[in-house]
Amino acid sequence: MKKLVASLIVLALTFMTLAAVLIATGHAAVSGPKPPELKVNEVYTNPNRYLLALPIDGQILEGKYTNIRFQPYATPALYDETVLFCGDVAWFFDGIRGPVVVVYKVQASQMYKGIACHELINVFEVGKR
User: Fold this and answer.
1) Taking the domains of the chain in order of start, what are their residue ranges?
2) Which one of 21, 41, 47, 68 is CB 3.0 to 4.6 Å from 58, fit for a cystine?
3) In what order do the strands lie in the sheet with 81-86?
4) Is residue 100 within 8 Å of residue 54, measured between CB atoms?
5) Burial 80-109 (b: 16+ CB within 10 A, else e)
6) pLDDT of 53-81, one tens digit each?
7) CB of 67 within 8 A of CB of 86?
8) What is the rounded distance in angstroms from the CA atom of residue 126 to the CA atom of residue 119?
9) Beta carbons within 10 angstroms of residue 66's beta carbon
């Protein structure tokens, strides 16, 4: 019986010594505010741009870019907007006879003669029932 008690005491002391060594050498930290270099930059802005307008003119440039001129809704007499899209995207506008909502990426993906071209996401016809 004395051997069993002695073995349990030795086992307990070994466990406590091992726990003390692990606690002393561990590099754990309590949770709290993270230092600035560990923060993740998150984007809170919409990467898309939306244009409600009537397409009035278009050109395909070098077969790789499409330049389209729009008259914005409710201000066609004041000004028009021209947007350069990457790729031949004329098929998006096939059969459209009225105002559209054009969705494209704000950040330019390529350049054409120093002018940024945008990736067209989709074109939605307005007022069609």
Assistant:
1) 2-38, 48-125
2) 68
3) 81-86, 65-72, 48-61, 100-105, 120-125
4) yes
5) eeebbbbeebeebbeeeeebbebebeeeee
6) 999 989 998 889 999 999 998 887 788 89
7) no
8) 21
9) 22
For 24, the token pair is: 């002393």
pLDDT in tens, 16-53: 998 888 888 877 666 766 666 666 667 678 899 999 99
Work out the end-to-end distance of the chain between its first and last CA atoms, rounded to an integer number of angstroms: 92
Provide the 10 A C-beta neighbour count for residue 123: 19
Q: Considering the entire predicted model, what is its pTM?
A: 0.62
Rounded Cα distance between 119 and 84, Å, is: 9
DSSP letter (8 states) at residue 95: T
Q: Rounded to an integer, what distance in angstroms lies between the CA atom of residue 13 and that of residue 19?
A: 10
